[in-house]
Amino acid sequence: MTRKAARGLWVVLLTTAVMSTAAACSDDGGSASSTASKAASAAASAASRGADVVASATAAAGEKLHNFKNGVNARSDVELGKPSTDGDGRATVKVTVKNSADSKKSYAIQVNFRDGSGNLLDTVVVTVDDVGAKASKDATARSNRKLSGEVKAEVGQALRH
Predict the structure, then answer these.
(1) Order of strands across the sheet with 151-160?
(2) Which of 1, 105, 127, 151 is deepest in the core (most CB within 10 A)?
């Protein structure tokens, strides 16, 4: 199943659940179908905003990586810890860079946050400057927004210069 199809299925399931719940508990004097219609509209709007946020984060990450001049693939130099949630509800993950080069290098690492099904929730770019030759340095990647449920982190891209 493609991501687009999976996202569409998620929206349909969410809309169905909201409509069923709204129809069962309409207490404003309006008809159940009117309440369900309003709930479905709100669910579709929320799903659309979520997709827009992810698209915006992805574009911003791409721009940061593009501006990292003369970078070479350094994915094997990067390790991620286990994601956790900070006090603001944002996902965080420890990023460890192990410079395999014989001179000081700087890194730009794209970290993707995904749900348990593999759907992209958010993406950020962390820069780690001046990592000594054959040395390691830690940083923290933090999601742009609150994420809930199971969150996994992966290295999207890692560039070194």
Answers:
(1) 72-73, 151-160, 105-115, 120-131
(2) 105
Beta strands in 4-135 (DSSP E): 72-73, 78-80, 84-85, 90-98, 105-115, 120-131
Of residues 97, 99, 80, the one with CA closest to residue 155: 80
90/145 Cα distance (integer angstroms): 6
Query: Domains, the chain, ranges and CATH?
Result: 3-65 (no CATH), 70-160 (2.60.40)
Per-residue pLDDT of the chain (161 residues; tens, 9 = 90+): 444 444 443 443 343 333 333 334 434 444 333 433 444 343 344 444 445 656 665 666 666 666 666 789 999 999 999 999 999 999 999 999 999 999 999 999 999 999 999 999 999 999 999 999 999 999 999 999 999 999 999 999 999 98
Q: Which two tokens stand for residue 82?
A: 């286990």
Nearest to 133 by CA among 96, 104, 98, 97: 104
